[in-house]
Structures are given as structure tokens and as C-alpha cells.
Amino acid sequence: DTGVSQNPRHKITKRGQNVTFRCDPISEHNRLYWYRQTLGQGPEFLTYFQNEAQLEKSRLLSDRFSAERPKGSFSTLEIQRTEQGDSAMYLCASSLPTSSVEPHPNTGELFFGEGSRLTVL
Amino acid sequence: AQKITQTQPGMFVQEKEAVTLDCTYDTSDPSYGLFWYKQPSSGEMIFLIYQGSYDQQNATEGRYSLNFQKARKSANLVISASQLGDSAMYFCAMSLPYNTDKLIFGTGTRLQVFP
């Protein structure tokens, strides 16, 4: 399977514990995004990498959250001292940069993984 | 700031009928992209269709078409000949190309197709 892969798919943890999620993007994609989706809402942007550089972080990403993409390939999202409000689906997506250059114009479409669902008890 | 508004929390449609899902957007940037994604119960976001702000014609992809009305800042999704497998959440999203390409999503519309 050459799509975006996330694991674990489900994580149940107790409040105060640390959790880490991993995302393996599509291999030729240099852009990687993390989103959070709570019940009944659309995905909310958390952070973005271009290769190994973290170029943008949302205000939603408190200091308990940290994301890395050390070699510009897979990425990890760690949440320290989890709180019940952290319970959500964490989605990873990857893409190529938008380009209008023929013969391969690109819309910048994001390809998503199936997400990692976190439940904090 | 960019914003996407989807005012229909839920929609019902009978199989084989067409349905329109509403989306309005707000941005001051002249260059942007509009996307629709489908999210079935499995959770994965599936890309359906894209419309660029400078595209003259409405985008179409199979049974999906995007009714783009730039002056009204609307980008409604039309699904023709609905199928039972179309039952899912549908999200409208906007990006600013040549920037980070991050997507700003609406709150979604749950579509249920009945026989």
C-alpha cells in the first residue's frame, strides 16, 4: 500500500500519560501536515512540515504537543501529560507543492491517512 | 482570515436522485483553491473534487460537480445519481496555493442516502 499510513489507529490512555503517533507519508511527498478532528467538527490544522523543517504551527498546538520529521520522511506527534480535552482523531496528510507547471500541474491536494484516534480517560 | 461555512448539518437523499451540498467561503486573497472531501465512517478523508479560483469552468469528476459562483463566494457540491455508498460526511475546504497549502475545513454535512 503506497498511501499515507498512521499508527496506532487507536490509543486509549490515562490522563497525564504521554502518547506518540507516527505518520508515514507518500514517499515522494515533501509536505506533511497534522490535523486534529473532534466529534462533529471538521479537521483543524495543527502543524506543517516541508521536508524536515517545521514551517508553521497552529495556536492549537500547546507546549504539551511536539511534532518532528527528522529525516524528512516519517513524522511523529507527541502529546505529553495528556488531558481529556486531547481526545480526538489525529489525522496526517501529505502532498506535493502546488504547481501550475505543465505537463504535471498539481492542485496541492492533500492525501490523508486513516487517522489515529486518541481517547484520554 | 479564511473561513469555510457549511450550513447543512445533515441531508437526506433518495438513491439515484441528485443532491446539492452547500459551501460558502471567505477570503481576501485572489488566489485560492476549493476542495471537497468525503469522510466515510472509517475516518479517512477522500479527495473528491478541486476548483481553482481562476478556473473559468466548473469542475467535474464523474458524478461530482462543483457549482462555483465566485461573486457569491459559494462552492456547492452536486452529487448526481446518488448511491448508497455515498452516505458519509462531506467537508468543504479552502487552501491558499503557493503558500503552505494547508486546508481550512468547514464543519461538514452528513449525507444519508436511502433506498
Q: What is the distance, rounded to the nearest whole angstrom, between the alpha carbons of the first and last residues of chain B? A: 41 Å
Question: How many beta strands in the DSSP annotation of chain A?
Answer: 11
Q: From the helix content, strand content and strand pairing of chain A, which structural class follows?
A: mainly beta
- What's the oligomerization state? heterodimer
- Rg for CA atoms of chain B: 14 Å
Total E-strand runs of chain B: 12
Topology:
The complex is a heterodimer of chains A (121) and B (115).
Chain A: E1 5-7, E2 10-13, E3 19-24, E4 31-37, E5 44-50, E6 53-57, E7 65-68, E8 75-79, E9 88-95, E10 111-112, E11 116-120
Chain B: E1 3-5, E2 10-14, E3 19-21, E4 24-26, E5 33-39, E6 46-52, E7 60-61, E8 64-69, E9 74-79, E10 88-95, E11 103-105, E12 109-114
Parallel strand pairs in B: 2-12
Antiparallel strand pairs in B: 1-4, 3-9, 5-6, 5-10, 7-8, 8-9, 10-11, 10-12
Task: Give structural notes.
The complex is a heterodimer of chains A (121) and B (115). With 121 residues, chain A is mainly beta. Helices cover 0% and strands 46% of the residues of chain A. In chain A, the strands form two sheets. In chain A, strands 2, 4, 5, 6, 9, 10 and 11 form a seven-stranded mixed sheet that branches. The mean pLDDT of chain B is 93. Chain B has strands spanning 3-5, 10-14, 19-21, 24-26, 33-39, 46-52, 60-61, 64-69, 74-79, 88-95, 103-105, 109-114. Chain B is 0% helix and 51% strand. With 115 residues, chain B is mainly β. In chain B, the strands form three sheets. In chain B, strands 2, 5, 6, 10, 11 and 12 form a six-stranded mixed sheet that branches. A four-stranded antiparallel sheet of chain B has the order 3-9-8-7, with no helix packed on it. A two-stranded antiparallel ribbon of chain B has the order 1-4. In chain B, β7 (60-61) and β8 form a beta hairpin. Chain B is built from no helices and twelve strands. The A-B interface holds A 31, 33, 40-45, 48, 55-56, 89, 91, 93, 95, 97-98, 107-115, 117 and B 4, 33, 35, 37, 42-47, 50, 52, 91, 93, 95, 97-98, 100-108.
